[in-house]
Amino acid sequence: PRTVDWFLVRSSIPVVTIIISYIYFAQNLGPKLMKKHSPFDLSTIIMVYNIAQIMHNVWILSEMANVCWHYYINKMIDLLDTVFFVLRKKNNQITLLHVLHHAGMPAVAFICVRYYPGGHGTLTGLLNSFVHSIMYFYYLLAGLGPSFKKYLWWKKYLTLLQ
To answer: What residue intervals traverse the membrane (predicted)?
Structure first.
């Protein structure tokens, strides 16, 4: 994967170590160390921490909102699938499910990009984009002609994934 060289992603060891250390500190070591110690005045550190968190989260939201907009535009472009079916007289592929899915996705994407740009709701778009990447790769191979049919053995798995 393209993230394999990213900080704290090369291996699961750092994240597991950090999580175990965090739990141990929060539940055991921290309270034990502070048992006979007066509380620290961390107001300045906490203020800097909060400002850094605000800046980081606003940046993340901005990036995710941008990605949500691209997803929304892509759902509009996806409507061409049906146009292509109509123009090629492939009416058997224009099922009620197909039409409802393609009509509903831009509406859902609009709501997401307009009212909820970013956050956990982007997971649906991420999964949908993953499936569509594979689906359009399949369509590309299928469109290259009969000599590529042997490479399309995985159609049933694509249908399952959808």
So the answer is: 6-26, 99-117, 129-148
First to last CA, the chain: 22
User: Which positions ≥6 away from 94 have C-beta within 8 Å?
Assistant: 82, 85, 86
**Sequence-separated (6 or more) residues with CB below 8 Å from residue 82:** 94, 98, 99, 102
Which residue's structure tokens are 């300045």? 44
Name which of 142, 139, 108, 104 is nearest 122 in CA terms: 108
Q: How far apart are CA 111 and CA 99, in angstroms?
A: 19
Q: What is the pTM of this model?
A: 0.67
Residues with active-site annotation:
101
pLDDT digits 0-9 by tens, 47-59: 999 899 989 988 8
Residues with Cβ within 8 Å of residue 90, at least 6 apart in sequence: 84
What is the C-alpha to C-alpha distance for residues 109 and 115, in angstroms, rounded to an integer?
10
* pLDDT mean across residues, the chain: 89
Cβ atoms of 148 and 142 closer than 8 Å:
yes
The tokens for 48 are: 């800097």
**What is the rounded distance in angstroms from the CA atom of residue 114 to the CA atom of residue 26?**
39
